[in-house]
User: Fold this.
Amino acid sequence: MQMTKEESDRIRIVKCIAIVLVVFLHAYTTEVGFADGSQTAALPDWLMLLETGVSQILARCGVPIFFLLSAVLLFRAEHTYKKVIAKKVRTLLVPYLFWNTFWIAVFLMLQSLPFTVAYFSGNHTPILQCSVREWLGLYGIGQEYPQCYPLWFMRDLMAVILIFPLIGKIADKSPEIALCIGTGLVILPFSFFGETALGWFLVGAAVVKKEMTILFFDRYAMGKIAVLYFGCVAAALCLDNTTLRNIFLLPGIVFWLRLSKEIYERKKLRQIFRRLSEWVFIVYVLHEMTLSSLRKICFRLFPATLLFWFLEYLLLPIVVMAGCILAGMAWKRVMPGLYQFSTGKR
Assistant:
């Protein structure tokens, strides 16, 4: 199925929205670990409610959106298994190894300096003292998360792509069954390697089989979808149930997909999102470690006041995203070859 220009532009818009959600997801914290102990933020109830609502409910749509878009784009392309694997080695495996190694090297250097070791050791074993098993864990092998925490997404994405023909066959035989199994994996509290990626890939395969596109929900008024979704957000805040919050991911994704239509129809705004979409990947690989490191520095340098907690939560993610984009621009200009290699030629 050939993609229209509107679909392509709206996917770019949704990716921009999703990366902002992911950054704010990682902005949530109540405790920061240092080499000499942990520091807890004594947040008032209203600020805790705000951070929970934004980071733990609204922002949790970010990663599912990326999984769903990856699945839809893969199954719509209809490439051979050999061609897909060859492409994913370049676009996923190489950047995964590069960025994990990069952040391991950064932490290794900063753990070796006396004036930064307190900020970059935390409660974990110093990198130089890691065993072979712990070194494998730094790359996400035998461990839930790699050294660069957000890269678990790429690792799980690579794993599920290895079996994408099987997922496609299930969807071809019965998209309804694929949709039901996928939704169940997404909603219910299963816990096994790659369950999130597998669930959303089953949903994505079913969506492609049903010939549903990002334009599907345009028939529904934005206002009605917004009322439904924010009603779900309020319910999730009140009930604090994991399964319920997972269920509310579904209207959340619909809301953000539908919002892309409103952005697309505003030409100047559309152009801004198209330009920003070029830097989604660089924000993804740079933001979390930068965010957590700057947060530690802020915790030590600034007074623990209510105003500080509030501004730190709202502004630090924005500053980090802007810094990541500027760093990406500079790197692409100075070392274009290395930039292309590290980003999988994105």
